[in-house]
Amino acid sequence: MRRLRSSATIRRMVRETALSVDDFIYPLFVRAGEGLKTPIASMTDCYHLSPDRIADEAQEVASLGIPAVLLFGLPAKKDERGSEAWAEDGSVQLATRAIKERVPDLLVVTDVCLCEYTSTGHCGVIKDGKVDNDATLELLARMALSHAQAGADIVAPSDMMDGRVRAIRQVLEHNGFDHVAIMSYAAKFASSFYGPFRDAAESAPAFGDRRGYQMDPANAREAMREIELDIQEGADIVMVKPALSFLDVIYRARQRFDCPIAAYNVSGEYMMLNTAADAGLLDRDAAMMEVLTSIKRAGADIILTYFAKSAAKRLRQSP
């Protein structure tokens, strides 16, 4: 077996899994305001950007060959319904227009969820202390439509409400946006690895948790049911989130479904590696590439990762 490991060239020739910059989506945080580029304390090399500054970042992303960005919005104010989520002058809507004006070929993916916009920090409308599934669907569809009207190429519902893909697909097609794709967070688990993101997005629940709508991490068969339902409802791409704790779910999904599969290398996974590297416990770049390759090897076609820019630069340097 060692004959085929004897040099860098032969290892490259027989390598089974090829990681490419085309695999990446780079997440960005858009905060309402002007002239903002503020470091996020909980996430290395990540920033809160105002809509007027985000096109500069998007241009850098595009120059590295990364095909897409994912936008998360932080509103100027929050309320119980998350009303700024579908505002024409909302942070994501303004950012989408700015990016499309500066870098029209860069794909803009928008997160569709109310957690950043509601005063409760939950992903939907609260009724009798619980998230009201069906009342939330109308608002999510309204939010997705506003993103499409602003120029989004793909809308990405991450709320885990039952039936939201169908609701969004119907509203998009009814309003002439049948060309806008849906990338569904189909198997989104109630994970402990979301902590840095919730700080960055200011979206921690004001009470309780999200286990009533996000998936139990112990369940893989249920994830297949979730993915199948979202495909039936009109999802073009399905996602598993997080990635590293659920490589087996990515693999199962790849074996079972023919549509593109995305995986989100989430904030806790990102910062776990960065923190270990800062402590001198591992080589950050080498570990980064190993992690991303493992996600691709498990079966992901698309990887959402805060490492996208660093990995793209590393891939350029590789023979």
Q: What does this protein structure show overall?
A:
With 319 residues, the protein is of the alpha/beta class. The chain has one domain (17-210, 219-317): Alpha-Beta Barrel (TIM Barrel), CATH 3.20.20. It has eleven helices and twelve strands. The strands form two sheets. It has an eight-stranded parallel barrel with strand order 1-4-5-8-9-10-11-12, surrounded by eight helices. The protein has a two-stranded antiparallel ribbon with strand order 6-7. Helix 2 packs across helix 3, helix 3 (91-102) runs parallel beside helix 4 and helix 4 (133-150) packs across helix 5 (164-174). The longest helix is centred in the middle third of the chain and has 18 residues, at 133-150.
Layout of secondary structure:
Layout: H1 8-13, E1 24-31, E2 37-39, E3 47-49, H2 51-63, E4 68-74, H3 91-102, E5 107-112, E6 126-127, E7 130-131, H4 133-150, E8 154-157, H5 164-174, E9 181-188, H6 195-200, H7 221-233, E10 237-241, H8 247-256, E11 261-265, H9 267-278, H10 284-298, E12 302-305, H11 308-317
Parallel strand pairs: 1-3, 1-4, 1-12, 4-5, 5-8, 8-9, 9-10, 10-11, 11-12
Antiparallel strand pairs: 2-3, 6-7
Helix pairs in contact: 2-3, 3-4, 4-5, 8-10
What is shown here, in short?
Helix content is 39%, strand content 18%. The chain is α/β, with parallel strands linked by helices and 319 residues long.
How much of the sequence lies in strands comes to 15-25%
- Highest CATH level, the class: Alpha Beta
The helix content is 25-40%
The 3D shape can be described as globular
Q: What ranges have pLDDT less than 50 throughout 5 or more consecutive residues?
A: none
